[in-house]
């Protein structure tokens, strides 16, 4: 509950920095030093809110889109050039923040996410100094350079996992991913492994980062037959560390997430998990329903829905996990274990246009709510049009 309240406060603080005109356009002059600085400070506050919150933010029955409008204006003025968006004195931080808040709706998401992770790592010291200066101006605690770089690596892992899942499932042709036909699974696997290693170095006590690193290794394993067993074993270690971190933080939300992702891997034949660790995973999964019941009245509805989903996924694997605890073989092959975790946790969603579930769908850049297959970009977003008529869903990003 504290994470939700703090995140909303940060999001509102960011909005207060960005006034709009009566017709909903950015009111601050775009080409003054003060105007640019305010934009950067607002983006820092929003990313700090995302860092604190375990899930998408929802409040007050409306969507906060002021930053997106300022970002759209900034990119239009810069001719869609990240480097030209802010002067050299405000780089690399300014450009990096723009990318983090914008590229998930970009057609070349994977390539840009990879570049963002590399940039955040190579410019870490400069970004750290710029964030320290910004904190003195903002006057409140913001995310650190380590936390910002970790967010970049989580984004890179998301992009790599999307590519790997797409190739593995063959549900959507690579050509429909906007240039991803040139990306081989090996490159995506290498990115996932590299970003997971860096993520573990940056945040080795964060349930979210440990879980993300573990999932990166699972997807890399599915595309690396020669090192599958080694990668799965490392993934199992990440999951157990994530569980311990979630339990130390007393976070039922992350405990449910970890159990959902970890159980299929832990009971596969190519991983060796101690009896005590497997028992801990089973106990964690068994305790989630009571936690959901306790948290449902106080957490945002969207968070509760996500928590219930992961609780149901963990419950579905419990019979096999209990069988393994009793000495039985839960899965007959590593491929079956990987197929189980990939099928239930692959980055799929439902197209807002046709209602079909598919991989690689793009979020509307304006409303961040609708998911569409953007093979024909001229059609526009039905959900966004409805939102402009006042029917926003209570969700941000």
Characterize the structure shown.
This protein has 16 helices and four strands. The chain starts with a helix and ends in a 9-residue tail after the last helix. Among the domains are: 105 residues; 50 residues, no CATH class. The protein is mainly α. It is 63% helix and 3% strand. It has a two-stranded antiparallel sheet with strand order 1-2.
Oligomer: single chain
- Write down how many β-strands occur, each being a DSSP E stretch of 2 or more residues: 4
Strand content: under 5%
- What do the pLDDT scores average to? 78
User: What portion of residues is helical?
Assistant: 55-70%
| End-to-end C-alpha gap | 19 Å
Order of helices and strands: HHHHHHHHHHHHHHHEEEEH
Largest sheet: 2 strands, antiparallel
Strand order of the largest sheet: 1-2
Please state the structural category: mainly alpha
Shape: globular
What Rg is obtained from the alpha carbons, in whole angstroms?
Answer: 21 Å
Q: What's the total helix number?
A: 16
Unreliable sequence segments: 59-63, 171-180, 346-397
Jot down its keywords.
397 residues; 63% helix; disordered C terminus; two-stranded antiparallel sheet; mainly alpha; two-stranded antiparallel ribbon; 4 strands; 16 helices
